[in-house]
Amino acid sequence: MTRWLSPDGIEVEHIVRDERPCLRVSHRVNGRRYHVADCWSPEQVALHVDLASLVEVVDLQQIRAKRRPRGDQAVTGASGGRPA
Questions:
Q1: Phi and psi for 37 in degrees, rounded to 5?
Q2: Is 36 helix (H, G, I), strand (E, B) or coil?
Q3: Is the CA virtual torsion 37, 31, 53, 15 positive or negative?
Q4: 3-state SS assignment for residue 74
Q5: What's the rounded mean pLDDT across residues 27-42?
Q6: pLDDT for position 60
Q7: Is residue 74 predicted with pLDDT exceeding 60?
Q8: Is the pLDDT of residue 49 over 60?
Q9: pTM for the full predicted model
């Protein structure tokens, strides 16, 4: 699912609760994570964190795995696979 983080350690995750989409707000303090609220709308999340301060967490390993060329399609080096 999608996650967003604030500089203050607030984390917002998109989850499914009771078969409905939900935004879970938690706070990381000294390596521990504390549940703050389960919100049903962005307006409710805004009561706990400044929405403009949130940045999306992107799983680069998952993206790289999806884009990885297979077999003979692999491109190596800056020359695009052509001999230099």
A1: -165, 155
A2: strand
A3: negative
A4: coil
A5: 95
A6: 82
A7: no
A8: yes
A9: 0.69
Mean pLDDT of the chain: 85
Environment class of residue 27 by beta-carbon count within 10 Å: exposed (0-12), middle (13-18) or buried (19+)? middle
**Residue whose token pair is 């994570």:** 33
Report residue 9: phi and psi, to 5°. Answer: 90, 5
Name residues whose C-beta falls within 8 Å of residue 65's C-beta, 6 or more positions apart in sequence.
none
CA nearest 51: which of 40, 59, 60, 42?
Answer: 42
Helix, strand and coil content of the chain, in percent to the nearest 5, comes to 20, 40, 40
Question: Which structure tokens are listed for 21?
Answer: 């989409």
